[in-house]
Amino acid sequence: MSADTSQTLPRLPRLMGGAIRPLPLMPVSLALSALSRKLSRDHPGMFRRLGEHGEKRFVLDPTDLPLVLLMDLRGGVPKITAHRRAPVAETRIAGPLSAFLGMMHGAYDGDALFFSRDLVVEGDTGAALALRNAIDDAELDLVAELAAIAGPLKAPLKAVLGLAERRSGLVLHRVDALQGGW
Amino acid sequence: MAMELVCPAGTPSALRAAVEAGAHTIYCGFADETNARNFPGLNFSQEEMAESIAFAHGRGAKVLVAINTFPRAGAEPLWHRALANAESSGADAVILADIGLLAHAAEHHPGLRRHLSVQAAAANPDAINLYAQAFGVKRVVLPRVLTVAEIAAINREIDVETEVFVFGGLCVMAEGRCSLSSYATGKSPNMNGVCSPASHVVYAEEGSELAARLGGFTIHRTKKDQPAPYPTLCKGCFTSEDQTGHIFEDPVSLDASKLIPALARAGVTALKIEGRQRSRAYVAEVVRNFRAAVEAVAAGRPMPEGMLARLSEGQAATTGAYAKTWR
Question: Alpha carbon of B86 to those of B30, B64, B98, B247: distances in Å?
């Protein structure tokens, strides 16, 4: 009757988490904030869609990585920073990295991931829903966004991301529904 | 000819996904309290509505605009504007519940096709014929409390089309008359467009359990290996005297896909999928499956086996009242 999404959602190997742990977080924060500023410029409708929740803070906790992300929308300029421990925020959304990327790219349904307990939401549920809906409507494509700012490295970057996608099972580009891929 | 598939869209991207996946018709609403899915981050501005309708029409699909809440006294202009905006956006029909709004639409927008929302709870031929005669309603969305035999009996005595829900969230309270949610949150589906609004929902991991609260009331406690529920009061797990269980309803979703042939024989015109609050991935997956099902039925082929259970609330499904065994 029920499909167990937890058996099919890719999870990053623990070794990878261990390898990432010693890395400094500052470059990650700078890169993510630059990306989020680009997204806010290119997809203004996504932030408009957040409405009353557009001034809140969201902790995104990829549970298979040794870090958490804080998405801070206060002041009208989105900022994403990486942390070892979850900072104060209105909402915390936790789950495997593949769940976040799959939702972002239209491959997975957030409600289904929540019902199956692959995703956990704590705090302001309305804000979490607004964020999910805004991102879902934006039809984002991480590979395309990164390639757009990669300059002359565009081709090798796309090749590397394509390889990473095939090896890890993570969805890194817009696919919309993965037919039968739940 | 295949039965008409009426599919949900909470956002323009979900509408595009539904069209691409094979929806004949999409229903959606404006981003305000005029529609019964007034959820954060959802719905359409007037500009988005016009663009989305043009997109759908360009691919041969229709768009119905749900203006299916009950206007607040003194705030009727908001609902009147929604009607005018739906018409100017090119909507193929509006889905209405309130008789005052139906009268306004019939008088001021006579060329705009009118469908009767499930929220109007018209569940017998006399009621439906009255809506048809008084307001020119062309289609009625039947409440989810009828058996297939009752639907067939209704269709024999009316001249308007019928549309029935076949998949998604299930609500078996007298439709359009439930204010249970307002006791815990102050907001209800018919007045504010929200049942158990997310702004009043809190989840908390407490030991080995997940507590789901609505307006401060704990509605569910679930173990780690159980599906997570959304805390709607009607589907809550309560203790009454010495029994603990789902007193009103089980947290399951409707899946009447196996009844499509019977619904076709009962004279139903259109099959409706619930879920404007769901993602474009969900919409595409469900629409694709149901399009294959209605095409199979139309061609006299066996229906494809479903693979939709994982998308359901509670990850379990029922045929609801259509094949009633519990009355």
Answer: 9, 9, 16, 40
What total of structural domains would you count in chain B?
A: 2
Band the pLDDT of B322: cuts 50, 70, 90.
confident
**CA–CA gap between residue A13 and residue A95 (Å, rounded):** 14
Q: Give the CATH number, domain containing residue B61.
A: 3.20.20.70
Answer whether B280 sits within 8 Å of A129, measured CB to CB: no
For residues B193 and B43, the answer to whether their CB atoms sit within 8 Å is: no
For B100-120, how does the pLDDT look when each residue is reduced to its tens digit (9 = 90+)? 999 999 999 999 999 999 989
| CA–CA distance, A39 with A45 (Å, rounded to integer) | 10
The yes-or-no verdict on residue A144 having pLDDT over 70 is: yes
Domain assignment present for residue B175? The answer is: no
Contacts of B278 in chain A (CB under 8 A): 109, 111
Query: Is the pLDDT at B175 greater than 80, yes or no?
Result: no
Please tell me the distance in Å from B239's CA to the nearest CA on chain A: 23
**Inter-residue contact B229 to B314 (CB < 8 Å):** yes
- In chain A, residues with a C-beta closer than 8 Å to the C-beta of B315 are 1-3, 115-116
Q: How many residue contacts between A and B have a Cβ separation below 8 Å? A: 141
ipTM value for the complex: 0.87
